C-alpha cells in the first residue's frame, strides 16, 4: 500500500472554481456596497442630529418649509380643530390610541399640520374634548418634518378618511378630505399642551433604520462560507475519493 494512501491534496475543478469566483465577486461586492451605505447613513444621522440640536427657527411669511426638515421651529397661528384626524396606531402602556394631527393656519395663510401627541382611542377625532383644543392665536414649538414621502409599505393599513384615520402620509388626499390647502409639512410637538398632559407629547427621536452593518456582515459571512465549502470539496484523497 503506498505511504500516501488516504492523504488529501488540493485538486480544484475548473467549473467549481469559476462558479466560486463569480459567487465571491458578487458577495464581496454586496458587502462592500453595504459598508458604503453604512458610512452614508451614519453621515445622514449625524447631520440630522446637528439640525435637531440647532436653535429653533421662527416660521414667518414666505419661510421655505422644505428647508426646515428635522429643524426645531416655532410658529404662530390658529388650530383648525374640526379637521383634526388620528394618525397611525400606538399604545401608551396597555392603552390603545393614536397620534392627533391637527391642521394649523399660519399667520401668512398657509396651512400645515401639527402633531400634537398621543390620545387614547376614545378621545380621538371626532371625540376630542373641547378642553383639549386650544382656541385663538397660539404659538407652537416643535420639530419640523417634511411629509412629501408617503412612507407606505405592504403592511401599512389602508387610510380611512371617512373615519378621520390615516396610517400613511398622503397630504394631497388629506387636503381633499379636509377641504384645506395643506402644505406637506408637520410640526411635531415635544411638550403637551392640554390639561392632564393630553395630548401626550414627548421628545422627538428620528426613527431612521440603519441595518447596513448587519447586512454587510451577512454578505461577507456568506462569502467566507462559500470559500470554505469550495476548499473542502477541492481537497481529494490520492485515490480520488
From TrEMBL:
The protein's location, in the record's own words, is:
Cell membrane; Membrane
Which terms are listed as keywords in the entry? Cell membrane, Membrane, Transmembrane, Transmembrane helix
This protein's source sits in the domain of life called Bacteria
Record's InterPro entries? Surf1/Shy1, Surf1/Surf4
* Membrane topology category: Multi-pass membrane protein
- List the transmembrane segments: 14-33, 213-233
Checking PANTHER family in the record gives:
SURFEIT LOCUS PROTEIN, SURFEIT LOCUS PROTEIN 1
Question: What family does this chain come from, according to its entry?
Answer: Belongs to the SURF1 family.
Q: Which residues form the signal peptide?
A: none
Can you say what this protein is called? SURF1-like protein
Q: Which organism is it from?
A: Benzoatithermus flavus
The UniProt record lists the keyword Lyase = no
